[in-house]
Amino acid sequence: MNLILFGPPGSGKGTQAKRLVDERGMVQLSTGDMLRAAIAADSPMGRIVAPIMASGGLVPDEIVIGLIAERMDEADAAGGAIFDGFPRTLAQAEALDGMLKGRGSRIDVVIRLLVDDAALLERVTGRFEQQGRPDDNPETFKTRLGAYNAQTAPLLPYYEGQEKLKAVDGMGSMEAVSAAIRSALETVRT
Ligand code: B4P
């Protein structure tokens, strides 16, 4: 099964992706984690993306599409992938569909995590205080939420048109959200 975890920044995509990996043995493909690893390694690409991420903007499509393309073999080997934080633009969604089609595969379901803006701010502020991730400060968070609303939320009709979208209440505890995702996945035919 290939699934997309979809939602605004701080909605719990990464948190739930890791739980799904533990439960189902799928592979997590997180563009956010890949970009942070490139920054930590101080690679040429990391140096390009660091200021973009720190400002709360989206990294150029060609960079994140390239990162996902490099990791598609892992998804094949694991029998499916959890796309976490990707796609975030229509160009990324179309590229992903093309890559999967070329491998005789497809997205089976898009899980949309519903969390209100006040709870998002509370979560990322909490993480900022604990971990100091530069893009979690309240000002940058506003930019990230703006990017989500302007560039990523317009993908919802794309997946609705493909009848792949399932909304899940993301406001509960991590366990409650995992349980809701589990029930949503039970209804997916692959
Ligand atoms: P990401 O790394 O994808 O980060 P995110 O959207 O903030 O996080 P996520 O929704 O995964 O939240 P998490 O589980 O961590 O992106 C970071 C940046 O990378 C972007 O702004 C962009 O610049 C760049 N980028 C990444 N992918 C890109 C792409 N495809 N195209 C262009 N640019 C891209 O949870 C957040 C916090 O909430 C944590 O502290 C967690 O513990 C807490 N939490 C989670 N679930 C909770 C729950 N149920 N209750 C209470 N707290 C909870």
Describe the structure.
The protein has 190 residues and is an alpha/beta fold. The protein has a single domain, classed as P-loop containing nucleotide triphosphate hydrolases (Rossmann fold, 3-Layer(aba) Sandwich), CATH 3.40.50.300. Helices cover 60% and strands 12% of the residues. It has nine helices and five strands, in the order E-H-E-H-H-H-E-H-E-H-H-H-E-H. It has helices at residues 13-24, 31-40, 44-55, 61-78, 90-102, 117-131, 138-152, 156-161, 174-186; strands spanning 3-6, 27-30, 81-84, 109-114, 165-169. Strands 2-3-1-4-5 form a five-stranded parallel beta sheet. The longest helix is centred in the middle third of the chain and has 18 residues, at 61-78. It is globular, with a radius of gyration of 16 Å. The model has no long low-confidence stretch (mean pLDDT 96).
Give a brief rundown of this model:
The chain has helices at residues 13-24, 31-40, 44-55, 61-78, 90-102, 117-131, 138-152, 156-161, 174-186; strands at residues 3-6, 27-30, 81-84, 109-114, 165-169. The protein has 190 residues and is of the alpha/beta class.
Radius of gyration: 16 Å
> Into which percent range does the helicity of residues fall?
55-70%
Proportion of residues in extended strands:
5-15%
Number of helices: 9
* Spatial strand arrangement across the major sheet: 2-3-1-4-5
Q: What number of structural domains do the residues give?
A: 1
